[in-house]
Amino acid sequence: MASADGMIVNCAAYANGRRVADLDLEAVSDYVAKDGHFVWIGLHEPSEDILKTIQAELGLHDLAVEDAHCAHQRPKLEEYGASLFIAIRTASWNASEHTLELGETHIFVGSRYVVTVRHGASLSYAQVRARCESTPHLLVHGPAFVLYAILDFVVDNYFPIVDALEEELEGLEEAIFDGRAQRDTTERIYDLKRGLISLKRAVSPLMDVCNRLVRYDQGLIADECRPYFRDVYDHVVRINDHVDSLRELLSSALDANLSLTSIRQNEVMKTLTGWAAIFAVITLLAGIWGMNFEYMPELHTRWGYPIGLGLMAGIAGTMYRRLKRAGWL
After folding, report:
1. What CATH number did the domain enclosing 52 receive?
2. 103: β partners
3. Which of 25, 30, 16 lies closest to 55, judged by CA?
4. Which H or E element spans position 94?
5. pLDDT of the residue at 295
6. When comparing pLDDT for 268 and 139, which is higher?
7. Which residue has the higher pLDDT, 84 or 263?
8. What is the pLDDT of residues 111-131, one digit of tens each?
9. Phi then psi for 217, rounded to 5 degrees?
10. How far apart are CA 54 and CA 69, in angstroms?
11. In a domain, 245, yes or no
12. At what angle are helices 62-70 and 48-58 packed, to 10 degrees?
């Protein structure tokens, strides 16, 4: 079911782990009132009117609905009576632009309903729904298992992003230490660091969300589902640690790039200084003999010119060998 210009992606009722009906929003409250049933609604950037309709059908809290409509929320878990409101950050990697794109998903969870609201860059949850419907023995646990499946899907999509960021870092390190670093290398490092910070802001608060869900004792999370949330928590911890490691390596890469750039500049300056010293002596001798005073015996010596050139060449050669041995040339 998809309607309202794509804002309502899906709206279905489930019982005993199986899909029993596709619904209009106005019929949601009827199925929520039935024993053994729950409703799963998927929305994509819905209008305020649609959220108000769902709020009226399910009795959602005003503050939670306001957050879901405005978006731009940090990952969090809030309790409103017997229901939960969860905000999480979704992420995707734009391979062509080499940039991280972030979105949001807001989840309303009650004992008989799940509502997902997607904003920005986010993959469709169609495959999550298909996965849940293919395992009715797990879907029978209701909204708690749906919540796990959504969190697991979002967190699993962090792994390829971390891998892509790691490949970007490896490419930068090769360029830096192979001497292929260019003027935009530092800019690329800062862009990558900004992406890691954004990912860190999405992942770090999610650890607290998952930990609270594992320990949630208000009856909404069945005991059978707690191991699944613990698995998601473990994945989030792994990703968070990996992001921290990449940030440290990236800082080291930035320091190495700046240090190597400074060393290369020093090498260039040493070379230029060495050649300048050689030509300074030659220029000194040429300047002395170019003063054209009347009484300069060297000017009237038959072999004065070749002797002068030989003297210049000898001094220049001697200085070149010494500077070369000292590593300045």
Report:
1. 3.30.460.20
2. 90, 120
3. 25
4. strand 83-94
5. 66
6. 139
7. 84
8. 899 999 998 877 788 899 999
9. -125, 25
10. 12
11. no
12. 150
